[in-house]
UniProtKB/TrEMBL annotation:
SUPFAM superfamilies: Protein kinase-like (PK-like) (SSF56112). It comes from the Eukaryota. GO terms for molecular function: ATP binding; protein kinase activity. PROSITE patterns: PROTEIN_KINASE_DOM, PROTEIN_KINASE_TYR. Residues 283-610 form the Protein kinase domain. It comes from Polyporus arcularius HHB13444. Residues 634-655 have a biased composition (Basic residues). Residues 620-629, 656-673 have a biased composition (Low complexity). This is Protein kinase domain-containing protein.
Length: 753
């Protein structure tokens, strides 16, 4: 581009006055840029938007200034220049102003990684990262530029999914030709060179594709009003959000012939492209650095502009491009070929040519002052994947039995992938287990195989931990270099089960303490030197075989899951949790509970799943003993007590009840005292889950309100301690109170490390 847009000697910023406040900077910089002859005003104009946030932005942040295409320049909504509203979906380049050149500089040139140490500078860094996160969230971007004006100094900053790099801080009054040249070139660039993804086409709201999407959604809703897939698609057709047509550059499947090449021997094969239309993403991982995964309920559009085929799920991500890491689509192809059950079915996938991050290369060239400085900048490649199944989050399970069934399905998937295909998942987490309706029956779907590896592949493939912090095993958290094993993954399944059970099922944790428990157990950490390690709550549970609630309850207790109809009795799930904790400890829980297990009137709650499971040819048939179903309780006359039929005499009934109570207590203790389940391989755990799923005494109405919601409320009012979030940038900060400020919703996806 330098050949077309040469370096300029002109400095349009040489006459900058002394700024005492930030608002004084807004007006002068806006007028200077818009009044310059060297900047192409037909492509970009500058607008100040310091006080009004985007109506679609839950963070209610607003960057000071921005460059926009003239037709999308924010409209002045009142008197004065500062009544324009930021538009994150249309901004081309962000501009942030700070009056102080040092204390508010988010970068520190004296450190090897530019990370600031002072609190105000950390706050400024968190602020600009929030701005760029909003740009990435509302647009399809390969990168984004920002200009920082720091008094009479400036930086030009480049952001992509690998990291951030910046120019050194320079005085734009004396060396402003640098900034003038950059702005001149930027204003002449096409959309792709300004950081827009050329494979994502924003749809015109008055266009035919938008009308067809709405018509399809209405037709599906009328035909199948209870279908969760059409509900998700229609929910994505939000008028205030940009809709897109996304291309997938199809990579041939194994065994398929390559597309024809051109006449020249050196020519590449013809690229096969498929297109899909999408509305608002169903899932957005957020953040600036990382995979930036977004998930959509999509429908294919053919070359004539017609919508074809069923709804599908499209995943847009910046995958780590590291030797030995397979594309997720290739992994799914292998799993599908080996008939692994309860995993997504591959439709198409492929890298987007030429869309690779650049930050890792810039940092590789930077000289370090401190020998041995550790850097983990990764090369990321833009990638899209389309699968047939559209699932919904695990937290939407209907009952405790359905939660256990979903996790059981995913353990079966994990086992088959490991034993048939030689692949281990390595990222078992809440967000990667979905609910999916298969032939009318809700099952679990083990999703997101992008961090998986071949069992016989080299152990070390990335320079840091692999997995999701909140659900990783205690051993993996305490040893960053540990190779993930089956035992680690089975423990992760337990943590997922516990996480949802504590949030939604009845237990003996005092409700006001649940947010703190979730924070300590799943987000907690300890430190050893400069490394983060497993938090004490999770580690203690694994080592002691029980979960101590002394910190959370008024009176000392260990965690128990309670029957929804009788809080003096335990839930079926309690036996599962207790036995699994015992297995991690390999000893009896330190605080045995003598409460008898609650009995529910026998209900047909799992037989539909068991029937469907038996019909699947790719799932081995378990060979276990018939389940023991507790006797059906009946009400005794006058006393309101439960006893078993047939009806005995009153004296005989009291004696029988006493014997039954003693027997049940003994049975409970005996059950808890059973040996630990081996977690070295899948088989014992699969059989264990199957035995409990076959039971007919699962409660029907045991799901409660989400107790984690209290954490969101506490965070909004400032009463909750900040949770540790490894791999996350400095927390977002607000530089000023913006109108209609509301708390941001909690993240739906756990952070990756």
């Amino acid at each position: 581009m330098k050949d077309y847009y040469p370096e300029l000697k002109e400095n349009i910023f040489a006459g900058a006055p002394k700024f005492s406040t930030e608002p004084a900077m807004y007006q002068w910089i806006t007028d200077t840029i818009n009044g310059s002859d060297v900047i192409n005003s037909r492509n970009v104009v500058c607008a100040s938007t310091p006080y009004k946030s985007d109506r679609n932005d839950a963070t209610h942040q607003a960057v000071d200034l921005g460059l926009y295409s003239p037709q999308f320049r924010p409209i002045n909504e009142g008197d004065g220049e500062y009544n324009r509203r930021i538009n994150w979906s249309r901004i081309e380049l962000s501009i942030e102003c700070k009056a102080d050149p040092t204390d508010q500089d988010p970068f520190d040139d004296t450190t090897d990684d530019l990370q600031p140490l002072a609190a105000d500078r950390k706050k400024a860094l968190g602020q600009i990262l929030t701005y760029v996160e909003n740009v990435f969230k509302h647009q399809h971007r390969t990168f984004h530029y920002m200009i920082l004006f720091l008094g009479h100094y400036a930086r030009i900053v480049h952001f992509d999914h690998s990291g951030v790099f910046s120019t050194v801080k320079f005085n734009y009054k004396t060396h402003g030709a640098i900034l003038t040249t950059f702005l001149s070139r930027f204003s002449h660039y096409n959309a792709s060179n300004r950081g827009h993804d050329p494979t994502a086409t924003r749809l015109d709201r008055r266009g035919s594709l938008v009308a067809k999407m709405r018509k399809l959604g209405e037709a599906k809703a009328a035909a199948h009003p209870d279908d969760h897939v059409q509900q998700m698609f229609n929910a994505s057709l939000e008028n205030a959000w940009p809709w897109y047509k996304l291309e997938v550059h199809v990579q041939p499947k194994s065994g398929e012939p390559e597309p024809p090449r051109g006449r020249l021997r050196s020519s590449r094969p013809t690229r096969v492209t498929r297109s899909f239309v999408v509305g608002k993403p169903h899932f957005d991982a957020g953040g600036v650095v990382g995979r930036g995964t977004r998930g959509y309920v999509a429908v294919e559009v053919d070359s004539t502009g017609e919508l074809v085929g069923p709804f599908v799920y499209l995943k847009d991500a910046w995958r780590v491009d590291h030797p030995g890491i397979e594309q997720e689509g290739c992994v799914l192809e292998t799993l599908n070929h080996n008939e692994v059950p309860f995993v997504p079915t591959l439709i198409c996938h492929g890298d987007l040519e030429g869309q690779v991050t650049r930050s890792q290369d810039a940092w590789a060239k930077r000289e370090v002052k401190k020998r041995g400085s550790k850097r983990t900048f990764k090369k990321h490649q833009h990638y899209r994947l389309v699968v047939a199944e559209v699932g919904k989050p695990l937290e939407h399970f209907a009952t405790g039995a359905r939660l256990v069934i979903a996790i059981y399905c995913c353990i079966l998937a994990h086992q088959a992938a490991y034993e048939r295909a030689g692949i281990i998942h390595r990222d078992i987490s809440s967000g990667n287990i979905l609910l999916y309706k298969e032939n009318g029956v809700w099952v679990g779907l083990l999703n997101d195989w992008e961090l998986s590896k071949r069992v016989n592949a080299p152990a070390v493939r990335q320079p840091d931990r692999t997995g999701t912090w909140q659900f990783m095993s205690a051993k993996a958290l305490n040893n960053p270099d540990k190779e993930i094993t089956v035992e680690d993954e089975l423990e992760a399944f337990f943590h997922v089960l516990l996480y949802h059970a504590v949030r939604f099922l009845p237990h003996n944790i005092e409700h006001d303490s649940v947010p703190k428990f979730l924070e300590d157990y799943f987000d907690g950490c300890s430190t050893k030197g400069e490394e983060y390690r497993c938090g004490m709550a999770k580690l203690s549970a694994m080592e002691n075989g029980s979960i101590n609630l002394s910190t959370y309850n008024t009176t000392p207790a260990t965690l128990k899951f309670l029957h929804p109809e009788d809080q003096n009795k335990t839930h079926v799930l309690d036996s599962i949790i207790s036995r699994l904790l015992l297995s991690f400890k390999a000893a009896y829980a330190r605080d045995p509970d003598t409460r008898e297990q609650g009995v529910t009137q026998a209900a047909d709650i799992t037989s539909d799943f068991l029937t469907a499971l038996g019909a699947k040819s790719n799932v081995p048939k378990p060979t276990v003993a018939a389940p023991v179903t507790p006797q059906k309780p009946v009400k005794s006359k006058g006393k309101g007590k439960s006893r078993a039929s047939p009806k005995p005499s009153r004296r005989r009934g009291r004696k029988a009840a006493a014997v039954a109570s003693t027997t049940n207590a003994a049975a409970t203790s005996s059950s808890a005292a059973e040996g630990a389940i081996s977690l070295k391989e899948h088989g014992p755990l699969v059989d264990f889950f199957y035995q409990y799923i076959r039971r007919t005494d699962w409660p029907l109405n045991d799901k409660c309100e989400d107790l984690r919601a209290k954490a969101v409320k506490a965070a909004a009012t400032g009463h909750q301690e900040a949770a540790f979030n490894p791999g996350r940038s400095e927390s977002t900060s607000r530089k000023r109170a913006l109108e209609n400020a509301q708390p941001a919703p909690g993240a739906s996806k756990r952070s990756k490390v």
